[in-house]
Design a protein that fits this description.
Layout lengths: L7 E2 L2 E2 L1 H12 L2 E4 L6 H4 L5 E4 L4 E4 L2 H11 L5 H14 L1 E4 L5 E3 L4 E3 L5 E2 L23 H10 L4 H15 L8 E5 L6 H12 L4 E2 L20 E4 L11 H8 L3 E3 L7 E3 L4 E6 L10 H6 E5 L12 H7 L2 H19 L6 H12 L3 H10 L24 H15 L6 H10 L2 E5 L9 E5 L10
Parallel strand pairs: 3-6, 10-15, 10-16, 11-12, 12-15
Antiparallel strand pairs: 1-2, 4-5, 7-8, 8-9, 13-14, 17-18
Length: about 450
């Protein structure tokens, strides 16, 4: 073995000396993400190191640490390498983020609240790097103006709302507890808007976890350091689990897991925006869910007049720096009012989609899509939702009450249930053929059902 004399005393390997040198040279540490975070939780997360190139503290992967060890002792054994690594994990200092409103841009450290700037320094504990140059004097970009005006159909309030949301993504803090779903069909500009947001923030600051995966075991760990999670074209299937979504939107601590590692708690600061052609069926209709949800209409149509190079043109014209300035102005408005700009069109769209969160309508849709499973049936995995008009009415009502029990709804009484089913297009009627002859079923009032009443 080649031996660096600095790290050996005769045949004795001085693993502490090598560990201390690496800690000092790479500024290795652990970072307390939230002032309430306990030390025990911090030790379950990754080590961090300071990147002079980007002015931020970044996650230190095991491979990079091993490479740094071998760079100093080329032929070090795996056991001694592990000895150094364990020493560093034990001795790395815990550092607090003193200024939560700091981010690193391409050229300076920026206070996103008062727009003060500083040179890169390891003394400033910052973990978010934005690959866009900050220049407060650069405030005009006509092609950016045209794009934003087009996707909002000339609605300045919606345009301001989008700038405020982008500004909120720049902020490494949570102080408004809302998430957004862009609603609109076809080529309406939402995908280009998401790409523009990703170019501004950097792809490493953007997650793409679908809304219906927020209840998964391993999906949430990736949200620890990102600025925003974008769910493009989310499914219209029923959203059954919303507890994590509400916690993430509010910045509450969330327990996460990574495969092969011990679970730990994160204090998320990422924001959440999705897009959908039609509103997903949200089973949770609680006040907490409704307060957090905002629907933004995107009604533009780029099918005929879309410019496939618009994103590149905005970037080449310096539009990202201008976008950052507009976003920071939006963030200032948001902090002053503590609410997003809400015009009548946004409020009406949101209210319309909240009305669609009808538990009985959701149950009917889940049944039709074979998504419902009885609560305590030992054969639940084999359960098949046959057509509604092939289920005895009383049994269908029992399944509905089972559904309400599972998801915390208050079930309608049978009279109101029948009335609401009729409003949704189903009438209670007697079947006159087949195995259900003489029994009541719920049949579509349109004559599409084979078992309609005579």
């Amino acid at each position: 073995m080649f031996r660096n004399g600095k790290y050996f005393n005769g045949r004795t390997f001085l693993h502490q000396q090598l560990g201390d040198d690496l800690i000092n040279e790479l500024k290795i540490c652990r970072i307390r993400q939230n002032k309430y975070e306990e030390d025990g939780n911090i030790f379950n997360r990754d080590l961090m190191f300071y990147s002079e190139e980007y002015g931020v503290y970044k996650t230190l992967p095991s491979k990079k640490l091993n490479a740094e060890i071998r760079r100093r002792i080329k032929n070090i054994s795996n056991n001694r390498q592990r000895e150094v690594r364990l020493y560093i994990e034990d001795m790395a200092e815990i550092k607090d983020i003193k200024f939560e409103n700091y981010i690193a841009t391409k050229n300076v450290i920026l206070d996103v609240f008062n727009r003060a700037t500083f040179r890169y320094s390891p003394d400033i504990i910052c973990t978010r790097y934005i690959p866009t140059e900050y220049n407060r004097l650069q405030s005009e970009c006509s092609i950016l103006d045209k794009f934003m005006n087009t996707i909002t159909c000339g609605n300045k309030d919606i345009e301001n709302l989008l700038y405020e949301f982008i500004g909120y993504c720049l902020s490494p803090t949570i102080f408004i507890h809302q998430f957004f779903i862009i609603i609109g069909e076809g080529s309406n500009g939402k995908s280009t808007f998401f790409k523009l947001l990703t170019e501004l923030l950097g792809h490493w600051n953007v997650g793409n976890t679908p809304l219906n995966k927020y209840g998964g075991r391993f999906e949430l760990a990736g949200m620890e350091y990102i600025a925003v999670n974008i769910g493009d074209d989310i499914s219209d299937k029923a959203l059954l689990e919303t507890d994590n979504l509400k916690k993430l939107v509010s910045g509450d601590p969330v327990k996460v897991e990574q495969k092969g590692k011990q679970g730990y708690v994160i204090y998320p600061t990422c924001k959440h925006i999705f897009s959908a052609n039609t509103m997903p069926r949200v089973v949770d209709t609680s006040g907490g869910m409704k307060r957090r949800f905002v629907a933004i209409p995107f009604n533009a149509d780029f099918k005929k007049n879309g410019d496939p190079e618009i994103l590149n043109k905005i970037i080449e014209a310096g539009g990202l720096t201008v976008l950052m300035n507009r976003a920071l102005e939006g963030l200032q408005r948001l902090r002053s009012a503590y609410q997003f700009t809400m015009c009548d069109e946004v409020l009406l769209t949101t209210e319309e989609h909240l009305k669609e969160m009808n538990p009985l309508a959701i149950f009917n849709d889940m049944w039709l899509n074979n998504e419902f499973e009885p609560y305590e049936s030992p054969t639940a995995k084999e359960f098949v939702c046959v057509p509604i008009n092939e289920v005895v009415a009383n049994q269908y009502y029992k399944f509905y009450k089972d559904f309400c029990k599972q998801y915390g709804f208050e079930a309608l009484g049978i009279t109101r249930f029948n009335r609401e089913m009729k409003r949704l297009g189903y009438e209670k009627t007697r079947c006159w053929n087949g195995n259900l002859r003489g029994k009541y079923v719920y049949a579509l009032m349109l004559k599409e059902c084979a078992n309609s009443s005579k």
